[in-house]
């Protein structure tokens, strides 16, 4: 699992989408993250660990290749804009609902 | 493990589930271009809410919900007076 900076993550995510255009799926996971880097202690040792409250972890995979990034409050605005654009740009293989069927765009397998 | 057929219900249930335990809940998005479908799942490992679609109009809704949950996750729960900057 490769942990990347936000920008590199977005670049790699673009590549994942492009790679999966002909076959395969892209799986993206989003989860709140409290910043821990060590596994939880087994026998009630005092947790010398302060959970952070302002981060989330985003993972993406196309089956074999896995990437991930951590987003915190300061980066979320910028990241979320770029991320939304990315999703909208790449998830374009779905059916459009217009009944008039002007010009049927066949799925261009580039 | 309900599969929702209306986006409204799914979005409401997903947000509700997240607010009950933010640390436990994860959101999974699976996109298959070759099959032309998108599936979103929100789970806390006990309850699992799912919504599937092949409609382009749902992409925007899904991406909006995703962004909303992302922002919820990074916002501090307690609104303390001073904002800490590191």
UniProtKB/TrEMBL annotation, chain A:
It is found in: Cytoplasm. It comes from Perca flavescens. InterPro entries: Signal_recog_particle_SRP14, Signal_recog_particle_SRP9/14. Keywords: Cytoplasm, Phosphoprotein, Ribonucleoprotein, RNA-binding, Signal recognition particle. GO terms for cellular component: cytosol; signal recognition particle, endoplasmic reticulum targeting. Heterodimer with SRP9; binds RNA as heterodimer. Component of a signal recognition particle (SRP) complex that consists of a 7SL RNA molecule of 300 nucleotides and six protein subunits: SRP72, SRP68, SRP54, SRP19, SRP14 and SRP9. Its main location: cytoplasm. The keyword DNA repair does not apply. Gene3D superfamilies: Signal recognition particle alu RNA binding heterodimer, srp9/1. The keyword Nucleotide-binding does not apply. Component of the signal recognition particle (SRP) complex, a ribonucleoprotein complex that mediates the cotranslational targeting of secretory and membrane proteins to the endoplasmic reticulum (ER). SRP9 together with SRP14 and the Alu portion of the SRP RNA, constitutes the elongation arrest domain of SRP. The complex of SRP9 and SRP14 is required for SRP RNA binding. Pfam families: SRP14. GO terms for biological process: SRP-dependent cotranslational protein targeting to membrane. Belongs to the SRP14 family. The lineage of its organism: Eukaryota, Metazoa, Chordata, Craniata, Vertebrata. This is Signal recognition particle 14 kDa protein.
UniProtKB/TrEMBL annotation, chain B:
The keyword Repeat does not apply. It comes from the Eukaryota. It is found in: Cytoplasm. Coiled coil: none annotated. One of its GO terms (molecular function) is 7S RNA binding. Keywords: Cytoplasm, Ribonucleoprotein, RNA-binding, Signal recognition particle. It holds the Pfam family SRP9-21. Residues 5-73 form the SRP9 domain. One of its GO terms (cellular component) is signal recognition particle, endoplasmic reticulum targeting. SUPFAM superfamilies: Signal recognition particle alu RNA binding heterodimer, SRP9/14. GO terms for biological process: negative regulation of translational elongation; SRP-dependent cotranslational protein targeting to membrane. Belongs to the SRP9 family. Component of the signal recognition particle (SRP) complex, a ribonucleoprotein complex that mediates the cotranslational targeting of secretory and membrane proteins to the endoplasmic reticulum (ER). SRP9 together with SRP14 and the Alu portion of the SRP RNA, constitutes the elongation arrest domain of SRP. The complex of SRP9 and SRP14 is required for SRP RNA binding. Heterodimer with SRP14; binds RNA as heterodimer. Component of a signal recognition particle complex that consists of a 7SL RNA molecule of 300 nucleotides and six protein subunits: SRP72, SRP68, SRP54, SRP19, SRP14 and SRP9. This is Signal recognition particle 9 kDa protein. It comes from Perca flavescens (American yellow perch).
């Amino acid at each position: 699992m490769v942990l990347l900076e936000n920008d590199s993550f977005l670049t790699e995510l673009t590549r994942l989408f492009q790679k999966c255009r002909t076959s395969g799926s892209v799986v993206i996971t989003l989860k709140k993250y409290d910043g821990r880097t060590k596994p939880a202690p087994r026998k009630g040792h005092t947790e010398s660990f302060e959970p952070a409250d302002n981060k989330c972890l985003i993972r993406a995979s196309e089956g074999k290749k896995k990437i991930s990034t951590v987003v915190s409050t300061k980066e979320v605005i910028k990241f979320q804009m770029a991320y939304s654009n990315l999703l909208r740009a790449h998830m374009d293989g779905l059916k459009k609902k217009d009944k008039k069927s002007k010009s049927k765009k066949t799925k261009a397998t580039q | 493990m309900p599969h929702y057929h209306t986006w409204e219900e799914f979005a409401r249930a997903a947000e509700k589930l997240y607010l009950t335990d933010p640390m436990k809940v994860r959101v999974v998005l699976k996109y298959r271009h070759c099959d032309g479908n998108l599936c979103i799942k929100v789970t806390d490992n006990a309850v699992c809410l799912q919504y599937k679609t092949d409609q382009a109009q749902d992409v925007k809704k899904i991406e909006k919900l995703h962004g909303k949950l992302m922002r919820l996750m990074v916002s501090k729960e307690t609104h303390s007076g001073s904002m800490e900057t590191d």
